[in-house]
Amino acid sequence: MTAHDRLLRLQRSLAVTLVARALLVGAAIAFVVLVIARTLLLPAWSVGLATLAGAGVAIAMLLRVRGVRSLSRVALWVEERTPSLRYSLVTVADGVRSPSVDAQALSVPWWGDAQKALLKSLLIPGLAALVAVALALFIPAAARLGHGTFVGGAAANAKVTDVLAVVHVAVAPPSYSGRAATTVDDPTSIEALVGSVITVSGNGDAKLVTATADSSARSVAQRANGWSLTLPMPARPGIVRLHAAVGRDRLIVLAPIADAAPVVTLLIPAHDTIVRRATGMFPLHAQLRDDIGLRDASFELVVSSGSGENFTFRTTAIARTTLGGRTETTLDARVSLDSLKLEPGDILQLRAVARDGNNVNGPGIGSSETRALRVARADEYDSLSVEQLPPPEEQGAVLSQRMLINLTEALVKRQRTLTRPVLVSESQRIAGDQKKLRKRVGDIVFQRMGGEPLSEEGSDEIANSGKLTPEQVLAKADSVTNTGGAVMDVEGDETPILAINKPLLEAFNAMWDAGRALEVGEPAKALPPMRIALAAIEKARQAERIYLRGKPSTAIVDVAKARLAGKDKGVSSVREPRPIVDPVLRRRSATFERVTSLIARDPDAAADSLLLMRVDALGDAPALAAALDDAARALRKRDNAAIPLAWVRVRRALGGQPVQRAGVSVWEGAP
Amino acid sequence: MSDFVFATAQYESGDWDSAPLVPANIIDTIARYTSIDVAPSGVIVPLSSPQLFRYPLVYLTGHLPVRFGPSERANLQRYAERGGLLFVDDHNHDIDGVFHKTATEELTRTYGPIKPLGKSHSLYKSFFKFDDGPPTTSHELNGWGDNLVHQTLSGVERDGRLVLLYSSKDYSSEWNYHPENKRFLSVDNTKFAVNIVVYALTR
Fold it and tell me: Do A276 and A340 form a contact (C-beta atoms < 8 A)?
């Protein structure tokens, strides 16, 4: 084989190697771009981008193949690697046919080294292409078919996707509710009344679909155009898991809505009642409400009779009314107390009762508060039979000292026109009033001094003993207070009790003088002591007022606090121990954090986890359950705008509302 | 009795208790600015009582006419001889008012002529420095009472020492608030009380 022949063979090998290398590098670039696109969850156009990138690189490299068409350039490529040829091979390539040149071109075996160099140039691109293909195959997202994001999977997968791609749910509420059936496509959660019939359906072969609800298998039926699953809405939250032969499971949360019992409010009578005799008509009025519809309502009456340990009861219902599914109405009745034949001591207890039309897990029964009507016993003296009485005689008859003076002055003016007996009679009447007033003043004095008020005997005693001197009265008061000593020696150290009561005692004695003058029919002589008594009473009032005003308020300074050396009371910043987080809440928060970290890798799995959390929260945290539903729905739709908002809602539902705690100072602006 | 006890004078006539929060406020001020052992609450001492001599400083105020009884006057004279300082403040802040007229008359009869104190008096430097003399009160500046800003205080000295300090500036109104409310003031207006107490204890 001549050198020219070997050069031609090398030219062909070089061309093939360059083409292969371009293809390998292009493929590697395409798969690397594809892996990056899948990792970043880019949409379907990213596949075209990868193909374009790979093809572009390959074409750019293929352009270099044009140089191989020149045999001289091939010879120069060999000469570059084997300098000992001394351009003999280039000479051959230029068409020189000389045996010596040919022998020189074949003197060195350059073709073996050239082949090795070609193979070596394919090694790195080949390895790169292999690694890129392996990455594309082994990344989880690469094996997934998610909502058409990537179409580069097996055809079988596409078939499974069709089975669970679209799920229809039809909800037929129970007949008693009177509500219409509804349908919804591709739901994450179904909220319906307990007992509603739920039909889940989809396209495809029923054999490819299995279903479980609350861990128990449910039969999937074949319909004309797909599969179907029927189940009732349970009383407790649950989850339906749809499983296809290949691919992801679909989860649908069953969120039951409980039918609330009727709310009954008894408006009349508004409170319990006690009557002395149970006669006449007794009006009853109640307000009824229900979320779905009321079926019937009535008033229940219970009459209890007897006392001690022996009681008998009578129960009856009145005004039973069929309401026909109304959600709000009133119930009125009038009960004849005569017909109940209530005896003294009997108690009539009454309430309103309403039932709804729930024939699934009901009926729901609601009742009002119970009111009692009691018939008073004969020996019972309760508040109803209190009769108002006029004020006692002595209170009404007592006149003020000023009024007595006015009466006496009027009597003095009429004195000349009156006969002596009439004058004495009128004067003695005023004297009687003066005596009563004197007795009241005496009572006040002695009560203040700590003793008993003047009794009739005491009054008589004083009356019998005649007018007391101030010394005698004060001595008597002193005997009551057990102070002892010369009580009239009040210069300098007069006690407050004596200081207040001395004017009253002066009035007391003046009234004595006035009374004696009036008793004998001398009203004109009675006036001076009566005025003295009035002045003394006024003086006593002033003394009392001045004495009370003299009490200063006491303020004790916390010296240690003023010197900033006191104990820290912690008033401005109350340190409270942080509340222990509810274990359930802590578990849910931890689960939610794990779900959050799952979003980037597998959003569908994260959505399923959210639905499982929703089932757990439906019973005790409805706000959290609603937020989880929104988050799962947003995640399923890949709604990048709604996902952060839904996440914030879930976090708020988990953390609760912000609480303003006592002791935290309120920001009031910059100083 | 090692603590300083702030005493309020009780006299027979008038309303001696018209500024009930002043003692607590001054006690708080003493505790705040000095290390004087001060009793946490004040006392009320009758002017006629021998207990008057237990207290080196006695505060007297009121709105109504002041008429000392013979025992009160004699006791005050002995109190001055023994070095006690009587601080009298006109709660009316009115030199035409009945308190000023009657009190100055009674005090002159008891202590002798009352003379104004110069701004260089040691009272104004005994603790805090008041270069402009006695601090003004809001009642003066607002034109209440006699509508005058009194430039000086008055007093009577014996042997170079004040035994009577008379004020028409109405510190009784100015200082008559609960000490807890002092935190709302940008400048504590009770500092002059420290000077009075320190003067009474050190001169």
Answer: no
